[in-house]
Amino acid sequence: MALRVCRRFFRDWAVLSRGLVVSDQKEPAQWLLTTGNASCCCRRINWFTFNPACSFTSDAFVSNLLKGSIAEAENRHYRLPNSVPPGTGEQMALLLKHPDQPEHSKVLKVAIIGSPNAGKSTLSNQLLGRKVFAVSTKVHTTRKRALGVLTEDDTQIILLDTPGLTTPSKVKRHQLEKSLLLDPWRTVTEADLIVVMVDVSDRWMCRRLDFEVLKCLARHPSIPAVLVLNKVDEVKVKDKLLDVTAELTCGVVNGQKLRIRPVIKPSLVGRRPGRDREESQDQDAAEPGDAADGDEYALSKEQLKTLMSQKGWPHFKDVFMLSSLDKEDVGTLKHYLMSAAKSGTWQYHSEVLTDQSPEEMCINMIREKLLENLPQEVPYSLTQSIEFWDTDGKGQLNILVKIHTKKETHMRMVIGTSGQMIARIAQETSEQLTSIFLRQVKLRLSVKMQK
């Protein structure tokens, strides 16, 4: 077992280095510290400079690091990220194009799951090197499963971005699309590796895995899983991360026990009254989630009862601590995924970036801006339809999208004072689509009341 520490963040964190003990081993634990291009492996350390993202990793990956595989990767010449064709026909032709197989091709399918707003789409965008998936600070930005393809050298990583795991009762209560309930479950069955994301900045949710996440892991115990603690930059008390790790892993990582020995008295973490009761009610209502695709994986009542008493999952292969907004942090996870890829046939041509159609991406980016700029429940009640889509003689993509609303008050909010709000949303979306399609995009928005 080794602790891998990468990236600058804050210094002289002696508490963390002395606070982690890997027990039940004859030899003292080995620690691997990576700072910039230098790395060292030592039997004992009294202090170190902590530079997250950090992770608990398997010996196999540590061996690859020591052999210099990552140093070699940093010196390779990567091609620029791919773009998305501006037409549905072009995108479909690219998706159907025969994969260009290198001599020793490797592939890995990664399903990224977690609670709503954990940062799954942000992480996927950073791994791809270009914004492909819509992101906002509100929940349920991602409404259905989408695919991103990262191709470098002889390795292809297929990222399966999923909606946040939720329950049938919440889908019914908030009148959400059925895809939010079914797509995450279906996606996991395709994966070679599961990445479970947890928002550690949420003090109420970071102390235990979401019950739907636990059910998903329990239904597919043969698929390797890694835990990603996201938004560590927002956690002020850094030694809390070790406590959270111990709880979410049940004190076991890669089959080895962890024991956290606090050096400084931890700060008291309050609990919101009635929180456990609310979670239990949601968990009881969540059992129909097993009716999602694949009855052969359905859990028994005894298994569900056992899961309800668990805070975490004791079978995580590795643990990462990072901020999905930081490229260096995400680069650590990216190298890990590259090293985990196995020999296999590529499923997509190296020029493919996503399986989303251009129209889908346009609608998703508009939804993102609506979520970010409009208050509360307003953006969730809006729908969009594309009225015009064409490329002119100068190569500029011209798009007209109509936003449909059910309330006059919502329509006034979308338009804003003197049309400022709808103009801002159109401008921000146009800039994002220009980056995605690598051509000038002019987007016009209109609003219509639904009768």
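The above is record 1. Record 2 follows with the same two-line structure.
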Amino acid sequence: MNSYSAVSFARNYDLSHLSKMLNGIIKTRTRCCVLPGVASMLARTHVTAPKKQTENKPPLRAIDLAQKIRREKVQEEKTSAPKSPLEKSVFELRQLSQQLQNVHPNVLAKHLHKSIIFQNQELIVINKPYGVPVQEGSAAKNSIYSVLPILAKMMDGMKGGSQLHTCIGLDKEITGALLLTRNEEVAIHIQDLHKHHQVERKYLVVSVGVPVPSEGVIDIPVIEREVTGSQPHFKMGLSPVYRMSDSGEGVTRVRAHRQAHGAVTKYRVLESNNGCSLVELQPITGVKHQMRVHMAYALGCPIIGDHKYAHWNKLAPQRLPDAVLKRLGIQQSKVRYLPLHLHARQLTLPGFKGQDDITVSCPLTRFFVSTLRKLQISLPDYRTDETL
């Protein structure tokens, strides 16, 4: 049979019938050759058939594509979620912080409204969530400052003209008491009190190691330095005004660096166990990252989750002792998910305008309490914010 005869033969038979015949021949494992005319006819049929089906499908809408991407993202998050209890809580915390950074401003303002722990005619204190910056300018879409107008309207029943002002900021990774005022005059007054060290602030941290002595005052200036290497970066470091004498029997005073800032921090160990400690810090000054630097480099007891100051000469996740990793139920490869355990616990303002002193205590976050329990460190008589 020549090629012309094969094409005529294919036209007189149903193509599906030919496909069945060919499949039957293949299953019998007999060697055969498909005539060129039939093969090309079948190839054209199998190539063009799906094209006719796609032409009948409705065009893909933008909302369908968005829902598909959202489903794929959720599935990816589920498959990559950590498995251990602590890893799950850290994963949830990371998700929460990312959501608050990127949600609609009204959603963030509503969350802050629920987090108010104190308010009067002039002052407001909120329990700042983890991972949300106070001021604008970071990579996050939202900041607390950007949603203050919305928060003011929520507090005053959607009345126009309301304003809120920040007084004493907190770093993005710090949780706890954040002070706001209802008018600019009070904000300036509190900033002046803070400048003259009349605002008392107490923080709680969980440190790796036990500070010795268990109570004291760290009075070492802090300076910003450039760290060279494969990943050049800047970080705060110590700039002491005393050094060991050449004989090693005492200390001598050296000239202070012109760019160094005086930094004073009181500390007190509240409890320790399993190689870690719960420490209360009271910064007398307000230098950038002074508590983190004093804990890591002055006392040699870095704060859990402080990946920035875990190493001086490189940027890498904090390295935890094996015993601590075992207690926390986390692998070293997952330590990068641990949040900074630095919580603004208490805020005390001196009385003004004839009022008494105001002291506000802020409940601990859920991840902070979970870490203390796993380390078997006794909890102080503090309330816990179960939403964080």
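The first strand starts at residue 116 and ends at 119.
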